[in-house]
Amino acid sequence: MLKTTLNVVCGFILSVASSQVFALENGADSAALGAEGNMAGNLPPAGVYLLTYFQDYSANKMVDRHGDSTVPNFDLDVNALVLRVVWMTDKTFLGGQLGFYGIQPMISMRLNVAGLSDSDKGLADFVFAPLLAWHQGNHHWGVALENVVPSGDYDKNHLANIGKNYYTGRPMFAYSYINHYVDISTKFSYSINGKNDDTDYRSGDYAAVDYNIGYHISPALTVGVQGYALKQTTADKVNSVKIEDNKAQVIAYGPAIAYHPSRQWFLEGKYLMENQVENRAKGHNIGLKFVWSF
């Protein structure tokens, strides 16, 4: 009985906060902000590749559209281990190399809001995408269409949920310019969200960008600046009614280093600090990426 009462109270507080402070339901998006950096648009040749990401995101503020903290005693910590398997085929379509990838995040989340605490951990929403890649001299680019499936754990009465409980379609474009001196890379995505049928809440659509400006100290070592930006473009809706003045945005930047000693494997690390934040959590992000070629 106590647990049920707590869940109801948590759900009520979260629903009030979502409609008044958060943008996107529960203040959360499913885009892997800051995951990509060096060689974001340089897709590999035919073969199977394993990419492993680790992200530690921490925030102690939930801010409104003016950047002011509005949720008392807010503390969020998310640790994510993400496995991404990429299969690049030897087939072509529209002049581009055809490939596919699947992403399975494993997430541990701890959330404190207004004196209440909750946590969740396990498998989050699965992602599948077809992709096409092109190469021309120092220029490399690719497109993909991600499909985010609501397979992760979700309970509308909980404060912390690693699943979103709605589908997201996400067209993507990535580009890299790479020569002996620099790596300039970016990844752009646009997320189109479905409705959460359990809450009748539809999170707004948003654009997201990862970026990297790297300098090659040696053929195996690159240092530079990386970051990400998110801008919500359409309003959230509850029971088909728009929530005005509640769109999310964030810009993050920080140092990054990449070590690429051979074609067999690749390691990258970064520390990103968030700024220009509106209607979402404000914190910092520590990221590692490891790539292995089979």
- Give the rounded overall mean pLDDT: 90
**How many beta strands in the DSSP annotation?**
17
State the end-to-end CA separation: 52 Å
Low-pLDDT segments, ≥5 res: 1-20
Helix content: under 10%
Shape: globular
Question: What structural class should be given to the helix and strand makeup?
Answer: mainly beta
Element-by-element helix/strand order:
HEEEEEEEEEEEEEEEEE
Radius of gyration: 19 Å
Total domain modules: 1
Largest sheet, in brief, is: 12 strands, antiparallel, barrel
How do the strands line up in the largest sheet? 1-2-3-5-6-7-8-11-12-15-16-17
β content, as a range?
over 45%
* CATH-scheme architecture: Beta Barrel
The CATH topology name reads Porin
Number of helices: 1
Topology:
Layout: H1 2-20, E1 47-63, E2 75-93, E3 96-113, E4 116-123, E5 126-136, E6 139-149, E7 168-178, E8 182-193, E9 195-196, E10 201-202, E11 206-218, E12 221-232, E13 237-238, E14 241-242, E15 249-259, E16 265-278, E17 280-293
Antiparallel strand pairs: 1-2, 1-17, 2-3, 3-4, 3-5, 5-6, 6-7, 7-8, 8-11, 9-10, 10-13, 11-12, 12-15, 13-14, 15-16, 16-17
